[in-house]
Amino acid sequence: MTSLWNKPGVPHKGWRCVNIYDVREGGSSAEEAVYATCEMCGKTEIRFVHTMEHDEYGTLDVGCICAGKMEEDYEGAQRREATFRNRAARRAKWLSRKWRTSAKGNHYINAEGHNLVVFPNKFQPGRWKFSIDGNFSSASYDTPDEAKLALFDAFWSVIEGDHRRH
Ligand SMILES: [Zn+2]
How remote is the CA of residue 73 from the centroid of ligand 1, in Å? Predict the structure, then answer.
Protein backbone atom coordinates (compact mmCIF):
# COMPACT_ATOMS: atom_id res chain seq x y z
CA MET A 1 0.00 0.00 0.00
CA THR A 2 1.30 3.46 -0.77
CA SER A 3 1.31 6.36 1.63
CA LEU A 4 -1.61 8.75 1.44
CA TRP A 5 0.64 11.42 2.94
CA ASN A 6 2.11 11.93 -0.54
CA LYS A 7 -1.12 11.62 -2.47
CA PRO A 8 -2.56 14.88 -3.81
CA GLY A 9 -6.01 15.69 -2.49
CA VAL A 10 -5.60 13.92 0.85
CA PRO A 11 -5.77 16.54 3.62
CA HIS A 12 -2.91 16.54 6.13
CA LYS A 13 -4.75 18.51 8.80
CA GLY A 14 -8.24 19.03 10.13
CA TRP A 15 -8.99 15.42 11.05
CA ARG A 16 -10.75 14.32 14.22
CA CYS A 17 -10.96 10.93 15.90
CA VAL A 18 -14.44 9.39 15.87
CA ASN A 19 -13.62 5.93 17.24
CA ILE A 20 -10.82 3.76 18.59
CA TYR A 21 -10.79 -0.04 18.71
CA ASP A 22 -8.56 -3.04 19.30
CA VAL A 23 -8.23 -5.36 16.30
CA ARG A 24 -7.83 -8.25 18.76
CA GLU A 25 -11.03 -7.48 20.60
CA GLY A 26 -13.27 -10.50 20.65
CA GLY A 27 -10.63 -12.76 22.04
CA SER A 28 -7.94 -13.53 19.47
CA SER A 29 -4.77 -14.35 21.35
CA ALA A 30 -1.45 -12.55 21.25
CA GLU A 31 0.10 -15.50 19.40
CA GLU A 32 -2.25 -15.02 16.48
CA ALA A 33 -0.71 -11.56 16.10
CA VAL A 34 -3.60 -9.88 14.38
CA TYR A 35 -2.74 -6.42 13.09
CA ALA A 36 -4.25 -3.87 10.79
CA THR A 37 -2.22 -1.66 8.48
CA CYS A 38 -2.42 2.09 8.94
CA GLU A 39 -4.38 3.44 5.97
CA MET A 40 -2.60 6.79 6.03
CA CYS A 41 1.07 5.77 5.83
CA GLY A 42 0.28 2.36 4.38
CA LYS A 43 3.03 0.66 6.36
CA THR A 44 2.65 0.76 10.15
CA GLU A 45 1.13 -2.40 11.61
CA ILE A 46 -1.34 -1.43 14.27
CA ARG A 47 -3.30 -3.15 16.96
CA PHE A 48 -5.17 -0.08 18.18
CA VAL A 49 -7.00 1.58 15.33
CA HIS A 50 -7.94 5.26 15.46
CA THR A 51 -10.73 6.02 13.03
CA MET A 52 -10.17 9.56 11.78
CA GLU A 53 -12.74 11.65 9.95
CA HIS A 54 -12.36 14.68 7.71
CA ASP A 55 -15.27 16.73 6.37
CA GLU A 56 -13.81 16.81 2.87
CA TYR A 57 -12.49 13.29 2.72
CA GLY A 58 -14.35 10.75 4.85
CA THR A 59 -12.74 8.32 7.25
CA LEU A 60 -9.42 6.47 7.52
CA ASP A 61 -8.35 3.81 10.02
CA VAL A 62 -4.87 4.75 11.19
CA GLY A 63 -2.27 4.23 13.91
CA CYS A 64 -1.45 6.49 16.82
CA ILE A 65 1.42 8.34 15.13
CA CYS A 66 -0.46 9.22 11.96
CA ALA A 67 -3.56 10.09 14.05
CA GLY A 68 -1.46 12.54 16.06
CA LYS A 69 -0.20 14.21 12.88
CA MET A 70 -3.64 14.34 11.30
CA GLU A 71 -5.23 16.03 14.31
CA GLU A 72 -2.05 18.01 15.10
CA ASP A 73 -2.11 16.69 18.64
CA TYR A 74 0.42 13.94 19.32
CA GLU A 75 -0.18 13.89 23.05
CA GLY A 76 -3.93 13.77 22.58
CA ALA A 77 -3.62 10.72 20.34
CA GLN A 78 -1.25 9.01 22.78
CA ARG A 79 -3.49 9.79 25.73
CA ARG A 80 -6.52 8.43 23.88
CA GLU A 81 -4.72 5.17 23.14
CA ALA A 82 -3.39 4.85 26.71
CA THR A 83 -6.88 5.39 28.13
CA PHE A 84 -8.31 2.83 25.75
CA ARG A 85 -5.63 0.25 26.67
CA ASN A 86 -6.14 0.87 30.36
CA ARG A 87 -9.87 0.33 29.95
CA ALA A 88 -9.32 -2.90 27.99
CA ALA A 89 -6.91 -4.24 30.63
CA ARG A 90 -9.28 -3.42 33.46
CA ARG A 91 -12.25 -4.94 31.63
CA ALA A 92 -10.27 -8.15 31.03
CA LYS A 93 -9.62 -8.50 34.78
CA TRP A 94 -13.06 -7.35 35.89
CA LEU A 95 -14.72 -10.73 36.33
CA SER A 96 -11.79 -12.18 38.26
CA ARG A 97 -11.69 -9.30 40.73
CA LYS A 98 -12.58 -10.11 44.28
CA TRP A 99 -16.32 -9.48 44.42
CA ARG A 100 -17.74 -9.26 47.92
CA THR A 101 -21.08 -10.67 48.98
CA SER A 102 -23.62 -8.38 50.63
CA ALA A 103 -25.97 -9.32 53.47
CA LYS A 104 -28.62 -9.95 50.82
CA GLY A 105 -26.29 -12.35 49.01
CA ASN A 106 -25.51 -10.01 46.08
CA HIS A 107 -22.06 -9.57 44.58
CA TYR A 108 -20.67 -6.08 44.93
CA ILE A 109 -17.52 -3.99 44.63
CA ASN A 110 -16.80 -0.55 45.99
CA ALA A 111 -14.51 1.19 43.50
CA GLU A 112 -13.42 4.80 43.09
CA GLY A 113 -16.12 6.02 45.43
CA HIS A 114 -18.92 4.08 43.77
CA ASN A 115 -20.99 1.15 45.00
CA LEU A 116 -21.43 -1.45 42.24
CA VAL A 117 -23.85 -4.33 42.71
CA VAL A 118 -25.10 -7.25 40.62
CA PHE A 119 -28.38 -8.85 41.70
CA PRO A 120 -31.15 -11.12 40.43
CA ASN A 121 -34.06 -9.40 38.73
CA LYS A 122 -36.94 -10.31 40.99
CA PHE A 123 -39.48 -9.57 38.25
CA GLN A 124 -37.73 -11.85 35.74
CA PRO A 125 -36.38 -14.95 37.45
CA GLY A 126 -33.09 -16.14 35.96
CA ARG A 127 -32.19 -12.66 34.73
CA TRP A 128 -29.69 -10.27 36.30
CA LYS A 129 -29.38 -6.54 36.73
CA PHE A 130 -26.79 -4.19 38.15
CA SER A 131 -26.83 -0.94 40.06
CA ILE A 132 -24.37 1.93 40.45
CA ASP A 133 -24.82 3.94 43.65
CA GLY A 134 -28.36 2.61 43.94
CA ASN A 135 -29.38 3.42 40.35
CA PHE A 136 -30.65 0.24 38.70
CA SER A 137 -29.82 -0.75 35.14
CA SER A 138 -32.80 -0.62 32.80
CA ALA A 139 -31.65 -3.75 30.95
CA SER A 140 -31.30 -7.21 32.46
CA TYR A 141 -28.86 -9.95 31.51
CA ASP A 142 -28.77 -13.73 31.10
CA THR A 143 -25.93 -14.38 33.53
CA PRO A 144 -24.26 -12.62 36.46
CA ASP A 145 -21.06 -12.32 34.39
CA GLU A 146 -22.89 -10.54 31.56
CA ALA A 147 -24.40 -8.17 34.10
CA LYS A 148 -20.92 -7.55 35.57
CA LEU A 149 -19.45 -6.68 32.16
CA ALA A 150 -22.37 -4.37 31.35
CA LEU A 151 -21.81 -2.86 34.78
CA PHE A 152 -18.15 -2.29 33.93
CA ASP A 153 -19.08 -0.40 30.75
CA ALA A 154 -21.57 1.79 32.60
CA PHE A 155 -19.11 2.31 35.48
CA TRP A 156 -16.40 3.37 33.01
CA SER A 157 -18.68 6.07 31.59
CA VAL A 158 -19.36 7.27 35.12
CA ILE A 159 -15.68 7.53 36.09
CA GLU A 160 -14.83 9.24 32.80
CA GLY A 161 -17.48 11.79 33.74
CA ASP A 162 -15.94 12.10 37.24
CA HIS A 163 -12.51 12.78 35.72
CA ARG A 164 -13.88 15.42 33.35
CA ARG A 165 -15.51 17.28 36.24
CA HIS A 166 -12.27 17.44 38.29
ZN1 LIG B 1 0.43 5.52 9.74
Answer: 15
Question: Using one digit for the tens of pLDDT, what is the confidence trace for 96-144?
Answer: 999 999 999 999 999 999 999 999 999 999 999 999 999 999 999 999 9
Phi, psi of 22 (to 5 degrees): -105, 125
Q: What is this structure's pTM?
A: 0.76
The dihedral through the CA atoms of 42, 44, 47, 49 has a sign that is negative
DSSP-derived secondary structure letter, 53: E
Domain residue spans of the chain:
4-92, 100-165
Give me the residues near ligand 1 (ion), CB cutoff below 5 Å.
Answer: 38, 40-41, 44, 63, 66
Distance 98 CA to ligand 1 centre (A): 40
